[in-house]
Specification:
The chain contains 2 helices and 10 strands, in the order βαββββββαβββ. By secondary structure, the protein is of the alpha+beta class. This is Glyoxalase.
Length: 142
């Protein structure tokens, strides 16, 4: 599928505590809060609409699959950032004491699709991956 204009995605995920979701997505990741109610919060997730819904029975640890020598959590979601924004976020997450599932590093080094990547969980066990490419045109490289 090819599109001329990238449109924001909408993703709703379960969390087990709305206050902790505000701490993680607002204070730690720096996302601006949008509309909210007692059981959900809209976030500006790097220009996309992420909604954290209170659903404690739906949270937990993901499955893992091997990729490039690491155990990648499945499911996961995230955003492709600029290299500079990726470095800033890695520092912010580390400073907040968030444990990385996969430490910030360069994956597929010297190969098509070379990318910076890092994985960590939010406070409800949702896995996030943030990537960056020196050359964004290699995003879908084979």
């Amino acid at each position: 599928m090819t599109t001329n204009t990238l449109r924001p995605f909408h993703l709703a995920i379960p969390v087990d505590d709305i206050a902790r979701a505000r701490e993680f997505y607002g204070a730690i990741l720096g996302c601006n809060e949008g509309r909210s109610a007692t059981e959900w919060v809209d976030w500006d997730f790097y220009g996309h609409q992420l909604v954290t819904h209170l659903a404690p029975e739906r949270t937990g640890v993901a499955h893992h699959n091997p990729v490039d020598g690491h155990a990648v959590p499945v499911p996961h979601f995230g955003v492709v950032l600029t290299m500079e924004d990726w470095r800033v976020l890695a520092d912010r997450v580390a400073a907040a004491g968030i444990q990385f599932v996969i430490e910030p590093h360069i994956r597929f080094e010297g190969q098509p699709g070379e990318q910076a990547t890092m994985f960590f969980y939010d406070f409800s066990g949702n896995a996030l991956e943030f990537k960056a490419f020196e050359d964004l045109s290699s995003l879908f490289a084979k």
